[in-house]
Amino acid sequence: MNELITKAATLLEALPYILRFHGATFVVKYGGSFMDSPDPALRQGVARDIVFLRAIGIHPVVVHGGGKAITRAMEKSGVKAQFIQGQRVTDEATAQVVDQVLSREINPEVVRTINELGGRARGFAGTDILRCRRLALAGAGGEAIDIGYVGEVVSVNTEPLAQCLREGITPVISPTALGEDGRVHNCNADVAAAQVAIALKARRLVFMSDVPGLMRDPKDPATVITHLEVSEVPALKKDGVVDKGMIPKVDSAVAALGGCDILVNNVGGMVPGTLDSLTQEQWKESIDRNLMSYIHTTKFAIPHLKKSKAGRVLNISGISGTMLFPGALSTTLSNAAIIGFNKLMANDLAPFNILVNNLCPGIVDVEGWGPRAERMATARGKT
After folding, report:
1. Element (H, E) at 357
2. CA-CA 20 to 30 A from 270: which of 73, 333, 355, 371?
3. pLDDT at 213
4. 50, 112 contact by CB (below 8 A)
5. What's the pLDDT at 381?
6. Rounded distance between C-alpha atoms, residue 232 and residue 275, angstroms
7. What is the CB-side half-sphere exposure of residue 70 using CA atoms within 13 A?
8. Each residue of 111-135: pLDDT tens digit?
9. Do the bridges between strand 59-64 and strand 25-30 make them parallel or antiparallel, or are there none, so unpaired?
10. H or E stretch at 124
11. Three-state secondary structure readout of 212-272
């Protein structure tokens, strides 16, 4: 009875999150001791959670690892595993072992476990979904390090995955990819999961591992870092806190956060004055705020939007760009410039499937508008 009460309390606590994320896509990187434990209950625990997510209306996509199984298979073949910067060195023979273990053994097992627990899963060899380029690592002195057939995922074929999600099926993907040479490449599962999450525009990217998380002292679980700013990552790498297997996890999380699908610009403020009354400083203040802020943010977002091969830009400017507003010369000029800027951007970005719109709201009767309206009416000879 106590167990049932505990489960009910957990569900009630989770209810706001269930409602918030209903219909959302979660990408889950499944690995660590969860996959290697001899305890069936532990191995099935994550699969049961995947089934639960789908049952409450969340769409999980699984990218699984299998590094320990690969290492065991290599040891049986008399080959010692070697890692550089958290990446497995992969020659042609190792690539064949990787493909066999990940796509032909582990992937079907994960799919079977989910299905046996009442879910609906479909397996995909990463080579059917992911394309990559040869990963280039740099040594301490900047020299290139060749680690063989190790790929960096550059594109994801999302249609088979989207079709599964539409049908209520959970895709399960192995972390292999086809390289530019048509050969199978081993890809870090954390990196692959991040690229899948970016391509699917997932709401959450979850890394499952056999450690509590990123710890300042790897030997002390009490030092786990529960929240991390992107700006802190370089220093943590330099100090060795982000090291070995944590490097691809942290880098992948940062990459997933770096995406951009929609940009909305809505900033501005009137700087009243006429041509003969506005000072140079007032002109600069008005144009920097009302025009250049739009240009700078759009310029920053464009590389991310192009990378997504889709996106939206909505620039909201005042109605003064389309009609006469006496006494607001600099603001009117900036708003008119934004309209022209949007037309040019719409033309330039259309080939990248990026839509650019301009919204010019009308006058809103807010506190302080009355006296301004009276001044404008007087300037026009009206009451």
Report:
1. strand 354-359
2. 355
3. 66
4. no
5. 66
6. 47
7. 31
8. 999 999 999 999 999 999 999 998 8
9. parallel
10. strand 121-124
11. CCCECCCCCHHHECCCCCHHHHHHHHHCCCCCCCHHHHHHHHHHHHCCCCEEEECCCCCCC
Query: For the chain, how many residues are written?
Result: 383
Q: Cα dist. 269→312, 316, 320, 332 in Å?
A: 24, 12, 12, 11
Residue 294 is predicted with a pLDDT of: 80
Closest CA to 293 of 321, 259, 265: 265
Based on C-alpha coordinates, what's the Rg of the chain? 27
Which residue in 197, 185, 193, 190 sits closest to 127, CA to CA?
Answer: 185
Structure confidence at residue 32 (pLDDT)? 62
Q: How far apart are CA 291 and CA 341, in angstroms?
A: 9
Instruction: Please identify every stretch of the chain with a pLDDT value under 70, giving residue numbers as ranges.
Output: 1-8, 10-11, 32-38, 209-213, 227-228, 230-231, 242, 244-248, 252-260, 267-270, 308-310, 324-327, 362-370, 372-373, 375-383
How many Å apart are CA 210 and CA 31, to the nearest integer?
8
Tell me the three state secondary structure of residue 6: helix
